[in-house]
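Sample intake sheet
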Amino acid sequence: MGKKDAEAIEASDIAEVTVRSPIGCQVLQGVCQNCYGADLATAKKVNLGEAIGTIAAQAIGEPGTQLTMRTFHAGGVASTGGDITQGLPRVEEIFERRMPKNPAAVAHFKGVVTDIREDGKEKVITVLSDLEEKIKEKGSKKKGETEYAVYFRRVPLVKVGDTVERGRLLTDGSADLSELFRFGGRERAQDYIIAEVSKIYELQGASISTKHIEVIVKQMFSRRKVKETGDTDFSVGDIVGAGELRRENDTMEAKDKKSAKADSLLMGILDVSLNRASFLSAASFQNTTRMLIKA
């Protein structure tokens, strides 16, 4: 989609448009020209073979000099969740998929909020699941009721009577990416990472094209863990690239053989870089982290 197309859409009554982006690219390796779009340096379609991983690392790392490396005690209604990691440490926390301190509560099931209370140094949010197969969590008072205990300074984003979807954040604070991915799904986790990283830079007066963030996020979700080998040479538990898995399964299907099955993974960028070669080399990923640390 070019500039004229964008202007025409903006001037029309169209409410929603599906566009191509790096994060949704379906090619087996790298990102195609159409999904990446324009080279921001030239405003023209990106050249084939362009090292977009290195470009993304530089785009994210260089503005990092403007980020404040600190953890502060926040106050006020908007951020009363206690010690909140911000700036460069938060960027690293996200890209390395680290567990945040006092994470936000993530809804494990769709349901209705029935109670919000303080219990000592915890705040407890109770949700009654509307699923047929209701799971009883530790501390539940009745079948189908799940209690989410969080740090008492966390601010609820819901109220009693609200209907919540699976994967929704119930409180303020930083989400545990693994938990968000597990219960909210791939798209919700990807959107969260992109929004969080963008917000961190914007709050410090810096700006990064989401295109560069998407290139990194695409790789964070690029690995699969084999659970059924089929007729492939994979072993159960192998961690392979999504493209490698598709390529092998296509070969098996062409030979009328059984393909492998695997689960999607969310990995930190350093873990991704150390797990087999990819279109973003290990050096590129380690450079990304190094740049963020030194920025």
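Comment: The longest helix spans residues 186-203. The CA atoms of residues 136 and 143 lie 6 Å apart.
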